[in-house]
Amino acid sequence: MSMSGTGQHDPPGCRAREVLDLVADKWSLYVVAFLGDGPRRFTELKRGIDGVSQRMLTVTLRGLERDGILTRTVYEVMPPHISYQLTAMGTTLLQATAPLIEWSSRHLDSIDAARTAYDARASRPRTIAD
Amino acid sequence: MSMSGTGQHDPPGCRAREVLDLVADKWSLYVVAFLGDGPRRFTELKRGIDGVSQRMLTVTLRGLERDGILTRTVYEVMPPHISYQLTAMGTTLLQATAPLIEWSSRHLDSIDAARTAYDARASRPRTIAD
DNA sequence: CTGAATCCACCGGGATACTG
DNA sequence: CAGTATCCCGGTGGATTCAG
After folding, report:
1. Predicted pLDDT of residue B124
2. Contact B107 A89 (CB under 8 A)
3. By the 8 A CB rule, do A72 and B122 touch?
4. Contacting residues of A for B2, CB less than 8 Å apart
5. Strand C: which nucleotides have any atom within 7 A of a protein Cβ?
6. What's the predicted TM-score (pTM) here?
7. Which chain A residues are within 8 Å of B118, Cβ to Cβ?
8. How distant is the Cα of B45 from the closest Cα of chain A, in angstroms?
9. Angle between helices B54-66 and A88-123 (to 10 degrees)
10. Which of B9, B18, B68 sits opposite A30 (nearest CB)?
11. A96-129 burial by CB neighbour count: b if 16+ within 10 A, else e?
12. What is the DSSP code string of B2-50?
């Protein structure tokens, strides 16, 4: 990977951070994952993504649309019908996140254990065993 | 991946979010990537990771240590010498992020283009072509 | 050298109310 | 149905200072 292997981090031109920011916000990956199954409309996403406010769903969708991750298609009917779906790039993003999601499901327990152990150590006065 | 394929997002038990949060913060992935080349001490990380404040480096290192991603080894000498290095789990995390980093380097230009196009459209009054 | 502590500005994001 | 507008709170993270 581009961020390692030289002992130096990449020069200022390393912009991987921007992509991280792209998916790091609270809801983007949920939306992308959800759209992985096909086009969805606003209310379907709202219902399907637990806990998202309609404001944040709007903001998230706008951001992903702007970045070319998904498209927004308006059907001029009554009542309004708007469909969101992944672009080709959005689909590749979804695939690129798969290993990380996979990793998470495999290591969440280990992380929990590590945290518990760490917190136990931190909250108890030190002994010579430390 | 566990978040897609059923047309339903995972139940509340889906905790992939926690891992995203793990790596989503501003500096964690930089630290992990940097330690991918081997153990480093505080000042080396501080110098190597452009823009990180000493506070955020400390906070980030503590968090990653707590989660079992890296270890902190203290050498009782003068001046103090403290070494940080990835755990086995940290190494697998680094590998899991590789596709995302790879994706980013391949699509940053496309994203820029999409943003530019989107912003141009948004800032200009609509025509019948829209 | 490797932090901890404190102060503070910024903004992500939730609640709520209103609109085409 | 699919938003927009406004208010406001809490957390993130930078700057600075102090300490072992």
Report:
1. 63
2. yes
3. no
4. 101-102, 105
5. 1-6, 12-17, 20
6. 0.85
7. 65-66, 68
8. 10
9. 80
10. B9
11. bbbbbbebbbebbeebeebeeebeeeeeeeeeee
12. TTSSSSSPPPTT--HHHHHHHHHSTTHHHHHHHHTTS-EEHHHHHHHST
Best to test chain B binding among A17, A70, A93, A97 (most B CBs inside 10 Å):
A97
- Each residue of B18-71: pLDDT tens digit? 777 777 788 998 899 999 999 999 999 999 998 899 999 999 999 999 999 999
User: How do strand B81-86 and strand B40-41 relate by DSSP bridges?
Assistant: antiparallel
CA angle A3/A8/A9 to nearest 5° reads 40
Other beta carbons within 10 angstroms of residue B98's beta carbon come to 18
Q: Is A42 helix (H, G, I), strand (E, B) or coil?
A: helix
- Measuring CA to CA, which residue among A104, A50, A21, A61 is closest to residue B17? A104
Q: Which of A100, A111, A114 has the CB atom closest to B97's CB atom?
A: A100
Ordered strands of the A70-75 beta sheet: A40-41, A81-86, A70-75
| pLDDT tens-digit series, residues A20-49 | 888 888 899 999 999 999 999 999 999 999
- Please give the pLDDT value at position A125: 56
The CA–CA distances, whole Å, from A81 to A42, A72, A73, A75 equal 9, 10, 8, 5
A125 touches strand C (CB under 7 A): no
Residues, chain B: 130
From the Cβ of B55, is strand D under 7 Å away?
A: yes
